[in-house]
Design brief:
single chain; 307 residues; alpha/beta; Dna Ligase, domain 1; Nucleotidyltransferase, domain 5; 5-stranded mixed beta sheet; 9 helices
Length: 307
């Protein structure tokens, strides 16, 4: 079971694997308590919400940390760097950007070239180019809070994952071209670039679809707030193309905001790039159509499955 606790909703997805083929067997949601994951929110209400969306028969869950609680940066390092050297380098790099004592953080460096779960042979060319390393850091207190809240709901957290990895599992393995996945949340947007079925770049954009949805309820016209998201996407796409040599060939939209009428067509026209709503190749419960609001929850539940 994957559980994604968003600003507005707690989303849960159950995935069952039969003959190495995963299928979604249940989707549930419940409103998140106001101000969830801020300094002062009602933990008791969140615990009750988790009890409602959880399956009493499934105690083990996979969840994620995203948004402002998570610090992330992609750096280029020599391909031959070993794990011990990587840990030292990660702490050194993060000390430059983290506004709190490094010993209060849980730090995890991730070799993006290996995120498919398979080791790739390093060629001489690879060694010369180096490798992309994702540096992740999160306050230890936040991680302990996650475990405590889920425990109070009678659940056991088996893994705390990254939304970008959940999106990669759900969408990134079905395309052979260079793909940009954009998951627009309420307050932030996840931007992930995938090439050769591997994550090559990711960025958390400080804009979300909260106001877009509010405006859409009052008008069929696209709101002016969309310009901010478009500008962030343009800058990210340009950076990937010019600085990372990763020109995106298509863009996949996800997240609840992607259901906004006319959004895909508008972005396609402005970005000069094929844009489509993400519909994953995975079976859903009978009678249900894919709801992009559940993308991260489903991708979390797919962790460790064979696709």
């Amino acid at each position: 079971m994957g559980v994604d606790i968003g600003t507005f909703q707690i989303k849960a997805a159950e995935v069952k694997v039969i003959d190495n083929i995963p299928e979604v067997i249940a989707l549930r949601s419940y409103p998140s308590p106001p101000g969830v994951w801020t300094e002062h929110f009602d933990e008791e209400s969140l615990v009750e919400g988790l009890k409602i969306v959880a399956n009493p028969q499934l105690k083990e869950v996979i969840t994620c940390i995203g948004g402002e609680k998570l610090i992330s940066r992609v750096v280029r390092l020599p391909a031959e760097i070993n794990d011990k050297e990587l840990e030292i380098t990660a702490r050194f790099e993060l000390e430059k950007i983290v506004p709190m004592p490094i010993d209060q953080l849980i730090i995890e460096p991730v070799r993006l070239e290996d995120n498919a779960g398979t080791q790739k042979e390093t060629t001489k060319t690879d060694k010369k180019k180096g490798q992309n390393i994702l540096l992740l850091a999160v306050p230890a207190a936040t991680v302990y809070q996650y475990y405590s809240i889920f425990s109070q709901a009678g659940l056991v957290v088996t893994a705390i994952d990254l939304p970008a990895f959940a999106l990669w599992r759900l969408f990134g393995q079905d395309f052979s071209d260079t793909l940009a996945i954009v998951e627009i949340g309420a307050n932030t947007t996840h931007f992930v670039v995938i090439k050769d079925n591997l994550i090559r770049f990711l960025r958390l954009l400080p804009v979300g679809g909260n106001m877009l949805i509010d405006e859409q309820l009052r008008s069929d016209a696209l709101p002016i707030e969309l310009l901010e998201i478009t500008r962030e996407l343009q800058m990210s796409l340009e950076y990937c193309s010019t600085q990372e040599n990763l020109p995106a060939e298509r863009l996949i939209l996800s997240g609840g905001t992607s259901k906004l009428k006319g959004l895909a067509a508008y972005l396609q026209e402005v970005l000069k790039l094929p844009v489509e709503e993400g519909i994953p190749a995975i079976s859903l419960p009978e009678g249900e159509t894919f709801d992009p609001a559940y993308s991260v929850a489903i991708g979390l539940a797919l962790r460790g499955t064979v696709r």
